[in-house]
Design brief:
By secondary structure, the protein is mostly helical. The protein has helices at about 15-30, 40-45, 50-65, 80-105, 110-130, 130-150, 155-175, 190-195, 200-220; strands spanning about 35-40, 65-70, 75. The protein has a three-stranded antiparallel β-sheet with strand order 1-3-2. The two termini are about 30 Å apart.
Length: about 230
């Protein structure tokens, strides 16, 4: 069997949800290549599930944009383009900046300590260097902090809807760097400013951090990126 299809079987429970989560994890961790063609038969065999709940899960992932179903051609893992990256980074910048504007006067010592603990946990995982998926999940958990604290439910749900895409791009970014997670000190300034007193400096850092991340990702993946 193709190594990329070596998925663990789904056990009892809410089968559709478990299938969707298993496929999402496999996509965002880079288990499938962008643009790779999949078939129901392969997936059902690898996951040891029936076609009914599998189709429901595939439909859910297609609605999220992680899978693409093309009539008369088949099912594909989403590919990426330069425009995809630019849209993701620009929207992330706006959403995260808005979250910080809302949360700035809501920060408490307990909330700031929580951010510090998330950062410390991420650093430990990076230092261990043996679990890229966990590092990506913890990087997302660090960035979740501002949305959890902002007090804006629609903003938080919008961010949650984006997370599979952000997770997917984080995975591509780490594979392009050939490393299992971000650099150990990559969030030091972010966390320091988030715990500080200068909102404007925080917002400027966010714009610069996102802009640099976009430029690096496009440069490293340039040979594989169509324009649109």
């Amino acid at each position: 069997m193709n190594e990329s299809l070596m998925l663990k079987p789904v056990d009892d429970g809410t089968v559709r949800r478990r299938i969707a989560q298993r496929l999402t994890d496999h996509i965002v961790s880079g288990g499938f290549a962008p643009g790779q063609k999949l078939t129901e038969q392969q997936l059902a065999s690898a996951l040891q599930v029936s076609r009914g709940p599998l189709r429901e899960a595939v439909r859910e992932l297609a609605e999220m944009g992680l899978l693409v179903s093309i009539p008369y051609r088949g099912l594909f893992v989403r590919s990426i383009s330069r425009q995809d990256l630019e849209e993701l980074y620009s929207l992330r910048t706006k959403l995260e900046s808005f979250a910080f504007e809302l949360l700035w006067d809501r920060r408490t010592p307990e909330a700031l300590d929580d951010l510090g603990r998330r950062h410390a946990t991420l650093k430990k995982t990076i230092e261990a260097g043996d679990d890229s998926l966990q590092a990506i999940e913890q990087e997302l958990f660090l960035h979740n902090w501002c949305f959890e604290l902002c007090g804006h439910n629609l903003l938080r749900r919008t961010w949650q809807g984006m997370q599979p895409h952000v997770n997917f791009y984080f995975s591509l970014h780490q594979k392009a760097h050939d490393r299992k997670g971000p650099l150990r000190d990559s969030h030091d300034v972010y966390v320091s400013l988030a715990q500080g007193d200068n909102l404007q400096a925080m917002l400027e850092h966010l714009k610069d951090h996102m802009r640099q991340g976009l430029a690096r990702t496009i440069a490293e993946l340039s040979t594989d990126l169509p324009e649109a």
